[in-house]
Every structure is written in structure tokens, then in C-alpha cells.
Amino acid sequence: MKINDKVNLVLLMMMAILLPACEESDYKAGDCSAGSICASESTFNEVELIPEPVPEPVPDQTAYIEKDGVTGKVLGADYWVNAVVCFDNNRNALCDTSEPSTVTFEDGKYSFKASDIIASISSNAPLLARKDSEQDSKGIALYAPTPINSADKNINITVFTTLVHSETQFNPYTLANTASAQESLKVSVDGLSIDGFGFANEVLLSGQDYLESDVESGVELGVDDVMFAQIDAIATSLHQAQSIAATDIYKAVAAMLDSMYQLNTYTTSISLESINVQNIQETEVDISLSTPHVEWDIGYIEEENSDLDVQGDYAVVGSKWHNRLIVLNLAQEIPSTLSFNNFAASPDVDRDDIDGFTGASEQSLANIRITPPSSVQSVLVGVEKKNKSGSEEGADSGVGLYRANFSNPSEIPFQRFAGVSEGQDFYSFPDLNAMSLSSDGSRVALSGGNKKMVVLQTDDFSLLNEFSSDSKYRAVILNEDGSLAYVSLSAPDRMEILDVTTGTKLTSLSTGTEYPKEFKLVQGSELTQIAWYLGKSNILSIYNVTDPSVEPVLLHTLAAQSNITSFDVSPDGTLVIIGSSGSLVVYSIENNTSKVLKTLLIEKEIELVSTPLKVGSIAFSSNNRALIATKNALQTLDIAFSEAPSAWSDETKQAWFDVHRANQ
User: Fold this and answer.
1) What is the Cα–Cα distance from 321 to 319, expressed in whole angstroms?
2) How many Å apart are CA 578 and CA 557, to the nearest integer?
3) DSSP secondary-structure letter at 53?
4) Which residues lie closer than 8 Å to 649 by C-beta, 6 or more apart?
5) How many alpha carbons lie under 13 Å from residue 388 in its C-beta half-sphere?
6) Which pTM was predicted?
7) 10 Å Cβ neighbour count for 288?
8) What angle do CA 633, 635, 637 make, to 5 degrees?
9) For the chain, what is the largest distance between any 2 Cα atoms, rounded to a whole number of angstroms?
10) 134 and 91 assigned to the same domain
């Protein structure tokens, strides 16, 4: 070993000894006590620029392997080999890296792992096949309606399934109904459809392999030379249509179908103009981020929002590290800043003073909840110790629940960290992990790494009940009147439903190797739902917890673009917004189905020069507006729906038919 290498090794060993206080801290730069050796701030610059862990590369699959999920074949005029097959979650006609994808092998065979596609099926994402692995602009695409279950077999993607899915999206007579679409496209005994022009029988329209012989398949397909010529003609027309609208293939296929019906022919050529007039016949929705955004100065480069809460015309954003409360007025179209106040901070908000008072890693504002309007409205603030492995000096000082006076939202009074005695304005709770306020504002719960959870009366912080466990309490949320607490615990990882009054556990659900990181509860007149995600996951799960004594039942699984950072559910439970490092995904939930309404890539939607792109907190302010907090800025996300297709009159449907399907 060279001398320089030995010196470097010794320095590294010294740094490892001198840096215990930096372990497991969320404070990415400069969070060590005086005298310690720490990485300089310039090493990190922005927390959000630290890349997420990259998964281990998957070895290239060289032969077909049937997995436990959806399987099938891809075939046009022949079998597609080495094609890309995916669930098109964002409906952009491409197989993006964030979407579950596979490739086809001999005889066009493909197969998915069931656990990879649950969220895609839940959101009704279509199956998409691209003929070329590079997905260039000349590549033809075929697709099929969403399978019913994640383990369905023989789900073939063919010329005919492409037409069927197109009808479910564009034809108001067969909207979102695969069986109706198949009936509409079907030829009758005399070879004609009800409208005098058809495509195939019900067997082929359901996706049967028409390249496989009748003897091998055991199914009477009714495929002859005439039908093969028809298939080849449709495939040729598909290629022409998609070649002029490569990223809008769904509209291109719809325009091609219109032309075929109008001209009574399978060989047709369409124009870009006929593609542009197509509209997917489902509830039209306009989702847009506000411009301009609201932005405020930060006290330190590492400062970022930790939580966001909304009550009436006010929103409060809390910043962690240099603790502040930012109050915003929502009574106007674009929110404005009412106040920007230090809270639970050192007098001059100087970082050295904070470390000198609290130890090597500072206490940090973590949770915010605004109490409902009453005679005395307030903001409840949870402060936690971000690093517990370093100096114990002042380790528990000031950790717990604070009350901020909200009588004048334009001027929340300054509050020195740990400057209040325990009482109705401060409740000491060492090792705080999370805080929740009941919807009616009467009770507040605190969960802790000290394996304890308490439920307090909000008005005076008096203790209602205390819970102890052999595990650490993590996330917590109370129901409307605070009579039930939904908590997550680690080692073993699980969620529990607790009766606050009696202190008894009503039910429990194991969550595997991770615990729920965050809860949102939606209480309707007939159904109570709870949503959560597990650590380092891009899947949000929604469960039925209407009967708290029964184990929660999974209703929906929704996928984000990458690991979830925050999410919220609209008050009426019909919309969900999921945030990850640089994107937002908006879902609608109706009855037993969920689907993606829009995926927003933040850097393409807005220009935030001084604001990193990580989505910090999300909160609905109404059923059709949400607030999105990034590092030190706030955006509004507006969601506007037009008339639902189910409300269309027969006259409106006929008008569509006259434009799109009437013979020329």
C-alpha cells in the first residue's frame, strides 16, 4: 500500500469515529457539532439532487419464461418477436421506464410478474405493444383492453383487440364497455354488422390467436383466406395511420376506424386533420398548475417544507431545520403570503446557536395541523429530534407538541424553541414520530419511537389515554371524532386500529417488511377508507376500514412515477394526487375502479428557478383544487371536469355518429 493511500485510510477512519452524530440524519449537510469533521455544504448543495438508489440490473432474458402474472401473445399479420409490451399507465403510447414492461419471444409470447402489474390493472391501463424495441416514430403499435386480474392468461394483443379498445375509448355508444365494443364490431351470420359493415366474429374480437390453426387451438375461429387478407389490410392501414401520429396512436386508430366505416373498406389512408378532431369520449378533465407560484426566502440552503395543512381560507407550510411557519391566504385565485414567522427556533435563527442549544443535530418542526375555526383557533406543531445517535445534550428538550396562536394569521407570534413550559401550549413527548388531529379538532394523537402513543384533549393538552407496545409507533391518524386511532408500527411491521376510549386493539394487519409511512382517512356516509404507502415504494394502497373490528380489505393500488414523497385524497374521496421526486400523478376513483387522469412532470409544467423539483407536501383545499409545496414555494393544482358521457343524450350520441361514422 502506498503512503498516500495509508494516510487517506487513517483519515477515513478518524472521520468515521468523529461523525457518529451524522448517522441516520435527514440533515444532509453541516449537521454536526462544533469540532467535528463534516462534509462541506458544497458537497451536497441540494438534498433533492442526491440520486435515489438504483435497483440491481435485471439480467437480459434470452428465452420465454412464463411468470405468475398476465401472459399472452402479440400478433398482427404475423407474430411479433422482440416487441416491447407494457401497461401504458400514462396513456402516452410509449413504454416508459416507470411502467411495467416485458418483451416478446417466439410465437409472440410475453409474460408479466403479477405483483408488478396490480397498480396498472387497478388504474385500467391498456396493454400496449410496440413492434420495435427502440420505439422510433415509424414503429407500429397494437393494444388491448385492461385484463381483469393480474394473473389472467392468454391475453393476446391483436389487430382486433386494438379496434375493440379504441371503441371503448372513442365511441359513446360502447364507452368503457368491452362487450358492447365487441358486439358493435362483430360481423353477423351473413358477414355484416348491424350497421352493414363489420370486422370479425366474437372469438377473434376477444383476442384469439388467428395465426394458430383450428386443430391446434380447438376453437372454431372462422379464419379463411378472405379473413387473412382483411387482417393484412387492417395492419397496413394501422401502420399508415400511426406513422403520421406516432405519439397519438389512440386517436390515429380511432380516425382509421371512422374512415373504414365511412368508406366500407379495410384499406384506407387518413390525414392528420382527421386524427386531430378525435376526442376520447370519457369525462373530460383539465388539470393545470398555477402560474405564477408563491415563493418565499429560505434561511439556510438545506431548509425545505416538512408539512402543509389547509383549513378554510388559510394554508400553513412548515419548514424543517430552520423552523418557520408560513401562513398563506387562499381566498384569492393565486394564494399570497400573510406571514413568515420563526417558530420553535433559536432567537436569531443562527445555526450555530441552534446546535449549541439542542445538541449536534437540531430538533426540527415535522408536523402541522390547523384546528377548525372556533373561539380560539390555533396551529398545532409537532417537533421531533432528527438524530438520536449523537450528543444527548438537550436530546429531549422541546421535543413534542406546541400550540401557535392563530387569532391573527398575519402575525403568528415568535416562539423560542423549548421556551414554554409543559401545559396547554406545550406537551413534552420524547422521540416524537408523528402527530394527528381529529377532523372535529377535539383530540390530537402523538406517536413515538419510545414505543408509546398518547391521545390528548386539544383544548388543554390533557391526557385522554396512553398506549404502549413492544414496537415503535410510526404514522398515526385519528377518525372524525378521535374515537379511533389508526397507527403503524415497526418490528414487526404492521398497522393497527385502536379504540381510544377503552385502549383496546380492534384489529391488526401485517404489512410485510415495511411499515406505512403516512395515512389519509376518508369517511363517507357508507364507507370509510384509509390510504397509505410503505417506505421506499411507488405504490399507494387504499383499504376499506368501515368495520374497525375487521381486518382492512384492499380496494385500490395506485402507482406513482417513483418512490412516493407525499399524497392526499380529496375530501369526497374521488381524487388522489401522488407526488414523487419530480412528478405528480392524478387518479380518479369511481365505484370499484381507478384510473390515471394525468401525469405531470414538474420540470415540464413550470419554471421554478430557485425551487428544487422534489414534491414535498400535498393537500387538497377543496374537491377540485390542491396545493403542492416544494422546497420553498407553493403551487395550486386545479382540476376541472366537463359533462360526463353517461349524461349524454341520444341526440348528442347521434350527432357524434353523424360526424364520425355516417357513410360518405
Assistant:
1) 7
2) 12
3) P
4) none
5) 12
6) 0.65
7) 13
8) 160
9) 91
10) yes
In this structure, are 19 and 102 located in the same domain? Answer: no
Q: For the chain, what is the domain count? A: 2
Residue of 488, 530, 496, 494 whose CA lies nearest to 512: 494
Domain contains 118:
yes
> Among 626, 636, 494, which Cα is nearest to 552's?
494
191 in the same domain as 139: yes
pLDDT at 533: 96
C-alpha cell at 414: 415568535
Q: Do both 28 and 123 map to the same domain?
A: no
Distance separating alpha carbons of residues 421 and 502, to the nearest angstrom: 30
Query: What residues contact 58, with CB distance under 8 A and at least 6 apart?
Result: none
Residue 487: its pLDDT value, please? 98
Residue segments in the chain with a per-residue pLDDT below the cut of 50:
1-59, 133-138, 189-194, 215, 218, 349, 356-360, 389-394, 604, 606-612
Per DSSP, which regions of 393-511 are E strands? 400-405, 415-416, 426-428, 432-437, 443-448, 452-457, 463-468, 472-478, 484-490, 494-499, 505-510
The radius of gyration computed from the CA coordinates of the chain, to the nearest angstrom, equals 29
Is residue 553 included in any domain, yes or no? no
- Do both 233 and 95 map to the same domain? yes
Q: Are residues 15 and 155 in the same domain?
A: no
3-state helix, strand, coil in the chain (%, to 5): 20, 35, 50
Show the 3-state SS of 89-141: CCCCCCCCCCCCEEECCHHHEEECCHHHHHHHHHCCCCEEEECCCCCCCCCCE
Structural element, H or E, at residue 355: helix 351-358
Residue 304: closest CA among 9, 48, 659: 48
In a domain, 233, yes or no: yes
CA–CA gap between residue 474 and residue 493 (Å, rounded): 10
Contacts with 368 (C-beta within 8 Å, 6 or more apart), sequence order: 306, 307, 308, 309, 316, 317, 318, 325, 379, 380, 381, 382
Q: Find the domain containing 22 and state its range.
A: 3-49
| DSSP per-residue string spanning 554-590 | EEEEEE-SSS--EEEE-TTSSEEEEE-SSEEEEEEEE
Q: Mind giving me the DSSP string for 367-404?
A: EEEEPPSSSS-EEEEEEEES--SS--TTTTTT-EEEEE
Bridge-based pairing state of the strands 484-490 and 494-499: antiparallel
The cell numbers describing 37, all together, are 469533521
Amino acid of residue 179: A
- Sheet harboring 304-311: ordered strands across? 304-311, 314-320, 324-329, 336-345, 415-416
DSSP 276: H
Distances (CA, A) of 343 to 319, 335, 491, 651: 10, 22, 34, 61
Q: Which long-range contacts (CB under 8 A, 24 or more apart) does 263-266 make?
A: 263/663, 263/664, 264/196, 264/197, 264/663, 266/199, 266/230, 266/233, 266/234, 266/237
8 A C-beta contact, residue 387 and residue 315: no
- 343 falls within a domain: no
Say whether 314 sits in a helix, a strand or coil. strand
Residues 121 and 199 placed together within one structural domain of the fold? yes
H or E stretch covering 660: helix 650-660
Residues 114 and 7 in one domain: no
What CA–CA distance (Å, rounded) separates 295 from 611?
Answer: 8
Alpha helices by DSSP H, 244-278: 249-263, 272-276
CA distances from 354 to 305, 348, 640 (A): 18, 9, 45
Chain centroid to Cα 206, Å, comes to 32
Q: Which residues pair with 533 in a beta bridge?
A: 518, 540
Unique residue bearing C-alpha cell 428538550: 397
Buried b (16+ CB within 10 A) or exposed e, 158-183: bbbbbbbbbbbbbbbbbbbebebbbe
